[in-house]
Amino acid sequence: SFVNYINEKKRDAEEAGKLAWFNQEYLASFEEGGGRFFPRWSFATHGLDKSILPIQEYPVYASMDWGRTAPFAAYLHTIIPVDYEGVKFKRIITFKEEYTTGKSPFEQIDALTRKFDYSRVLKILTDPSMMNPLSDGSMSITDQMIKAFEELRGIRPSFKKGSRNRIARWAAMENWMRTAIDGLPYWMVTKDCPNLVKELTSIMPDENN
Hints:
This protein has 209 residues and is of the alpha/beta class. The chain has 7 helices and 7 strands. 36% of the residues lie in helices and 23% in strands. A hairpin with a 6-residue loop joins strand 2 and strand 3.
């Protein structure tokens, strides 16, 4: 569980003589966040109150979580190189959201590609279940989407199955929420992703999972 992961990191920090740092970085911020899963995250610090469209030089990636009765969520992200006083690093900006229900894979791709040129997307990271054949033996959600991309836009984006290791994914998200040397977070989210903002703000930890 995530709680066990945090306990393991605490032991590692104590052995390395960095327990004070750990308490400041994790435990203090967790208490301040009232037990929220990502206590360091807030729109005031991690949000961009504007829309952006990445220039062609910046790579764009997509992520998708399938749902038909439950919401289907798709996001676009760009990676921006930053050079601050000679220190170079990268910042992720999540800039577009699709959050809907009741649409087929074909309809979802039609809606997505009307709002952004997916020929710019280098890779689409999906939840693992999207690549499994359906229970009736028909094509997987991913295969149906690939077919839709080809028929609607004449493109064939690269899909990649996301990791099933949720604890590692959560830890990676927490890591990207840290503040960079220029005073801004490594990962920021625009106002055009309201449901992501809501989920990141309200999600609570589950000690058993």
